[in-house]
């Protein structure tokens, strides 16, 4: 924001001009003060003084410097855990509808673009001193910026909660049937996924969400990450255990009537275009969103610097790239065209203790992770409404209403690909592409030395806008054409 001659005198008196800048602190700079305003002689050295004043005011409004205590290795673990989520379950489905070559190209591209967006976010944080995304948005764009950041981060977290509860809806019935010794085709009201997800929400998740603070729930993130690593190991192992056309696995396909059809189905494809291809990029984008957690992790980093945090993000994104690629490729090479948008749901737990174990581990992990995300959404909502003082009635009412809305969405949304698609083309696109580039361009709009960087940021912003303009209509078109497909039809 440019320096204004109408700066209040009281605000100026609270400012401390750093002595190491090449700017004179001579009192002659302030030749006249009338009615609490500064005369224009102060602006004689326009560019350098504007930059100094802007920088100081921005840092004054944002967070005070507090030394971090978290090591680089632990920061890598925390950021990796922030990246990892239910998106990993949809990547094999994305690969099955793009082909190995096209999927690899998209995965590499989104990984590199995500790293670049983190770089822009760190630059913005350094320039303003803000360590909270909402504060950064408010500092640069005012209240509209705060609202946009709040909306994007909340939608992303709600999307993650929906995908987690969708896992409960899909996987818990199979686990219960196995423990009861029933066949997969067994149906009763108490093994209905819709009833079970409501029971879990209000029997387990609601009491945890009603707690005044997170407490020990923050430590469940490590368990969640270890469950996903366990899931990857099982996916790789099962690739060599499950034949491509094992009876019962691919029976939904009408083309399995002869051996040539079998060979056709069990042959990997490298480039594919169909009506579901549009979900590939949003699903990958959804899987890589961690931006709301970047600045808090940065603020806790010991001896923090932009370069050190960039190293943390590079290592974390590379590790998640490897996990995502291996999960997608081995999941696809196990089921080929019959892979579903929830990869875990495709594995049969009948007489398979390993599959049952990983299914239960993932269910427990996501159940314990939902309250963590819920706390973030609710606290942001209270912060936005400026209702930060704890009130028990409001706390209970908001928690109950939000959980009811989330459960209704889980019950009526037909597939996980719809969650990945909607969140991927909206909040994930905003958090990865549009917001970091917009913030950077606004902050550096008067810095001529960063002309080249601004060109790249502008292209990055244009890419995000183009992604929205292309993907959103295609996702809507697929909804209209499919008319609400079921999971089994994926």
TrEMBL record:
Its main location: membrane. One of its GO terms (cellular component) is basolateral plasma membrane. It is found in: Membrane. GO terms for biological process: gamma-aminobutyric acid biosynthetic process; regulation of synaptic plasticity; regulation of synaptic transmission, GABAergic. It is a multi-pass membrane protein. Signal peptide: none annotated. This is Solute carrier family 38 member 1. It comes from Coturnix japonica. The gene is SLC38A1.
């Amino acid at each position: 924001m440019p320096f204004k001659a109408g700066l209040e005198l009281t605000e100026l008196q609270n400012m401390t001009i750093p002595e190491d800048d090449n700017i004179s602190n001579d009192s002659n700079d302030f030749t006249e003060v009338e009615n609490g305003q500064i005369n224009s002689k102060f602006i004689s050295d326009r560019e350098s003084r504007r930059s100094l004043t802007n920088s100081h005011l921005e840092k004054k409004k944002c967070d005070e410097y507090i030394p971090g205590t978290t090591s680089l290795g632990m920061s890598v673990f925390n950021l990796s855990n922030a990246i990892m989520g239910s998106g990993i379950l949809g990547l094999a489905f994305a690969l099955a509808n793009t082909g190995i070559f096209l999927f690899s190209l998209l995965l590499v591209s989104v990984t590199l673009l995500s790293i670049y967006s983190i770089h822009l976010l760190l630059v913005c944080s350094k320039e303003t001193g803000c360590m909270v995304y909402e504060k950064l948005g408010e500092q640069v764009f005012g209240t509209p910026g705060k609202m946009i950041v709040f909306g994007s981060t909340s939608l992303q977290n709600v999307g993650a909660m929906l995908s987690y509860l969708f896992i409960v809806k899909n996987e818990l019935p199979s686990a219960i049937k196995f423990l009861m010794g029933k066949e997969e085709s067994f149906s009763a009201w108490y093994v209905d996924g819709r009833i079970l997800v409501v029971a879990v929400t209000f029997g387990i998740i609601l009491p945890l969400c009603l707690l005044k603070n997170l407490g020990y729930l923050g430590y469940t993130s490590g368990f969640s990450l270890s469950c996903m690593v366990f899931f990857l190991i099982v996916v790789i192992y099962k690739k060599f255990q499950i034949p491509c056309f094992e009876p019962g696995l691919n029976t939904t396909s009408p083309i399995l009537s002869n051996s040539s059809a079998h060979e056709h189905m069990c042959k990997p494809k490298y480039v594919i275009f169909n009506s579901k291809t549009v979900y590939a990029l949003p699903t990958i984008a959804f899987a890589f969103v961690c931006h709301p957690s970047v600045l808090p992790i940065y603020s806790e980093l010991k001896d923090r610097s932009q370069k050190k945090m960039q190293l943390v993000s590079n290592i974390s994104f590379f590790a998640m790239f490897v996990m995502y690629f291996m999960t997608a490729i081995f999941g696809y090479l196990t089921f080929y065209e019959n892979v579903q948008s929830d990869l875990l749901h495709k594995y049969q737990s009948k007489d398979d203790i390993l599959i049952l174990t990983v299914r239960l581990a993932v269910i427990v992990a996501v159940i314990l992770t939902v309250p963590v995300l819920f706390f973030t959404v609710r606290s942001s909502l209270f912060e936005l409404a400026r209702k930060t003082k704890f009130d028990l009635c409001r706390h209970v009412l908001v928690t109950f209403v939000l959980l009811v809305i989330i459960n209704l969405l889980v019950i009526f949304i037909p597939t996980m690909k719809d969650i990945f698609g909607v969140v991927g083309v909206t909040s994930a696109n905003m958090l990865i592409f549009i917001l970091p580039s917009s913030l950077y361009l606004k902050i550096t709009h008067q810095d001529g030395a960063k002309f080249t960087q601004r060109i790249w940021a502008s292209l990055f912003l244009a890419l995000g806008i183009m992604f929205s303009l292309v993907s959103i209509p295609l996702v809507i078109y697929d909804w209209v054409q499919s008319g609400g497909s079921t999971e089994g039809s994926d």
